[in-house]
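Example S7 (structure tokens).
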């Protein structure tokens, strides 16, 4: 007889700085419906397995990484690390080097954040199926094999694989292949953010029939509870982080991820996947948000990570009137509320240490065409107010949209330079055209990746600002500028925004 109803697995590779929030939410919903559930963070465990699998070194750099391995791991688990950025950076890069060494025999690039295996394309369903058929070719094969006795002991009726990022695709299917061999009569389901995106394509036809029993888009609670003839009792649950091995995650302190909503309240930006996938906005009632946070505070977090696409202004107003149970950070929009210096100060008093803000462009025409709903004059005021209040900023920029030329890109560069004293971190990215977005129908497009599961198009830029020219601008003009380079160099390597809050003034004062 089965001992467990559902086993949920978070596969490699994703940033291992915090536990998987979506699975914790799903576990809570299932348990509320009296469906027993456990989680295995195979991403965290698998990365540790690879880090410790390297035992020999031909090169000096690898010998040093081996010699410092345990010290570096311990350093990334301590708030003391944030007192010296150079030491932190060395620890991250040396451990990451060991991951690379573990992947070399398999012709695979493995980092804390990425996975690329020669001859396997993650957006090609044929390659994913082949990865399932040949799991022994995967660097995580030995680790996945070690999971099988644990899974056999749990004897779940259903095993769910959460595929969120493209960097998890090949390993997810290698794991599925091993599970199919070991447990041919156990129901396998596949869900997660990447599955949801794939299934939102109008031309979606499930290529994994016969390999997994079901693919589930969206949040998954209703579908999984229905498998056991149970009903989901409500839409919002406090994530279940019990039995999480908090101190194994690669962060200077315990980070609790939590979503106060699903979807995006703005959902008007052109080319946004939220629009293309027609995801609706579904906020957690505000009183329940604060109740949930107080409950989660029992795990003694060093930091709350809000996962929302953007925290709503109405929630931010309520946060500003509270003393939050731990410091926090998350995405927000450049809203009128942030133009009030007193409001920014109140947010800082509530525990806000960093806001992630999507500026995208420093040219007003481009912002208007993208329907961002923001004015550069307001952005300027907001950045200064946040700086004065003591809230760090992580600014996201997007180069190469159909509305931009090098002239607009240079105005973005100048905007950054003019506000460099108010910007702590920047993320300059190249624009990708979502497949089947309304805007792509008006442009000449072609496949971005060769694969039936690709989510992006390549396109002929209507103003001739093609991708290679954007790259040249970024390397020759933008990132090479000394002021911008200084901001970029402050970005924590690999973990980027996930660790950036720990390098704000608040944590530097913690001893």
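Recovered sequence:
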């Amino acid at each position: 007889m089965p001992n467990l109803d559902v086993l949920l697995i978070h596969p490699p590779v994703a940033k291992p700085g915090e536990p998987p929030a979506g699975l914790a939410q799903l576990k809570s919903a299932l348990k509320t419906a009296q469906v027993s559930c456990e989680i295995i963070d195979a991403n965290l465990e698998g990365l540790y397995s690879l880090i410790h699998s390297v035992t020999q070194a031909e090169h000096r750099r690898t010998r040093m990484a081996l010699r410092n391995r345990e010290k570096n791991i311990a350093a990334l688990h301590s708030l003391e690390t944030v007192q010296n950025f150079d030491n932190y950076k060395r620890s991250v890069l040396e451990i990451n080097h060991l991951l690379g060494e573990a992947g070399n025999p398999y012709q695979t690039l493995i980092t804390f954040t990425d996975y690329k295996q020669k001859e396997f394309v993650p957006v090609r369903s044929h390659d994913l199926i082949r990865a399932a058929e040949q799991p022994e070719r995967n660097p995580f094969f030995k680790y996945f094999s070690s999971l099988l006795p644990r899974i056999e002991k749990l004897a779940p009726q259903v095993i769910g694989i959460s595929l969120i990022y493209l960097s998890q695709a090949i390993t997810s299917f290698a794991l599925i292949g091993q599970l199919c061999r070991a447990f041919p009569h156990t129901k396998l389901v596949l869900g997660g953010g990447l599955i949801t995106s794939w299934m939102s394509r109008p031309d979606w036809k499930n290529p994994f029939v016969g390999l997994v029993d079901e693919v589930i888009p969206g949040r998954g609670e209703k579908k999984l509870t229905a498998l056991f003839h149970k009903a989901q009792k409500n839409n919002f649950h406090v994530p279940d982080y019990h039995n999480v091995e908090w101190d194994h995650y690669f962060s200077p302190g315990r980070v609790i991820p939590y979503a106060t909503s699903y979807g995006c309240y703005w959902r008007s930006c052109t080319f946004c996947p939220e629009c293309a996938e027609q995801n609706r906005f579904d906020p957690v009632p505000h009183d329940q948000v604060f109740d949930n946070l107080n409950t989660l505070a029992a795990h003694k977090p060093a930091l709350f990570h809000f996962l929302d696409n953007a925290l709503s202004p109405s929630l931010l107003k309520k946060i500003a009137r509270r003393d939050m149970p731990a410091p926090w950070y998350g995405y927000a929009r450049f809203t009128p509320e942030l133009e009030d210096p007193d409001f920014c100060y109140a947010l800082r008093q509530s525990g806000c240490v960093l806001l992630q803000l999507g500026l995208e462009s420093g040219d007003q025409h481009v912002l208007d065409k993208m329907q961002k709903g923001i004015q550069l004059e307001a952005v300027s005021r907001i950045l200064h107010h946040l700086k004065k209040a003591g809230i760090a900023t992580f600014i996201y920029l997007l180069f190469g949209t159909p509305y931009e030329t090098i002239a607009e890109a240079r105005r973005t560069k100048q905007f950054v330079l003019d506000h460099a004293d108010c910007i702590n971190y920047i993320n300059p990215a190249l624009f990708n055209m979502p497949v089947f977005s309304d805007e792509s129908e008006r442009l000449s497009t072609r496949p971005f990746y060769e694969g039936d599961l690709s989510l992006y198009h390549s396109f002929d830029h209507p103003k001739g600002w093609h991708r290679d020219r954007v790259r040249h601008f970024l390397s020759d003009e933008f990132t090479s500028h000394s002021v911008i380079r200084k901001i970029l160099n402050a970005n924590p390597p690999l973990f980027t925004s996930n660790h950036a809050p720990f390098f704000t003034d608040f944590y530097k004062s913690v001893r």
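Notes on this example. The chain has 20 helices and 18 strands.
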